[in-house]
Amino acid sequence: MFKDYLGKYQTLLKANATDGIITSSKELVLDNFEQTLFVEDVIVDGVSQKAIVKQEKKSEDKKLIFKPDTKLNKGSVVEWEKLFYLVTDFLGEGINEIYPTATVKLCNSSYPIKQNKTRVLKTDAQGKPELNKFGDPVYIYTNGQIINIPCIVQSTFPLVDENKQLPLPQGSLTVTMQYREDIKTNDTFPMYNNTYKIRNIDYTKVINYKGIMTLSVEQVTSEVK
């Protein structure tokens, strides 16, 4: 029984010591962060922050080191030097509270979304309402403002080995972007002077409506809605 109590006491002491080291380390880093070499101004989801930008092996990959206790979500969009990056991973708990680190990847395209659309009844040349095969009125969306969401577009699918890529069928792409509730399967959109239709959406990296979703899209000839 004494050994059990002693073991718990020693564990508690170690935990307290670790907490103390982390706290003092964070204070030291905070006092000197903005004077550190290579600190840059970045914009995260529209909010200006300071970060150290570290180049990774591939030119499109970066790591961003933020001030202690900074919190980011996977899927956050970072703007740096007029380019956009998607946060694909973030370490900011425990010992990582001292140097919260985001892994980001360059966005090579943008997904167009029309906001504030007006739904109107679709009519034929004579002004009569058009009906679908079930006899229901057909509606279309007009007006609205287009906003472009930074995204990562690929024509290949990465395998377990990062150095190997599996080509997708011709006319197919994957679009990786910040989770948005207003993007649905079967939506169509313009990109690269073509029209694409969303065939599937992978939500496995979305938790509590935050994170990254990947669209599997296919080139079609239908008109964009």
The total count of helices amounts to: 1
Task: State the fourth-level CATH superfamily of the largest domain.
Answer: Phage tail proteins (gpFII-like)
Report the major sheet.
6 strands, antiparallel, barrel
N-to-C terminal Cα separation, in Å? 72 Å
Low-confidence stretches: 1-17
Number of DSSP-assigned strands: 16
- Indicate the proportion of strand residues: over 45%
Please report the first level of CATH classification, the CATH class of the largest domain.
Mainly Beta
What is the CATH topology assignment of the largest domain? Thrombin, subunit H
Shape: elongated
Pattern of helices and strands: HEEEEEEEEEEEEEEEE
Output the structural class. Answer: mainly beta
Protein name: Phage protein
Organism: Bacillus xiapuensis
Please outline what is shown here.
By secondary structure, the protein is mostly beta strands.
Descriptive report:
This protein has 225 residues and is mainly beta. The chain folds into 2 domains: 2-106, Thrombin, subunit H, CATH 2.40.10; 109-114 and 146-220. It has one helix at residues 2-32, and strands at residues 39-44, 47-55, 61-66, 77-80, 83-91, 101-106, 109-115, 118-121, 139-142, 145-154, 156-158, 165-167, 172-178, 188-191, 194-207, 210-220. It comes from Bacillus xiapuensis. This is Phage protein.
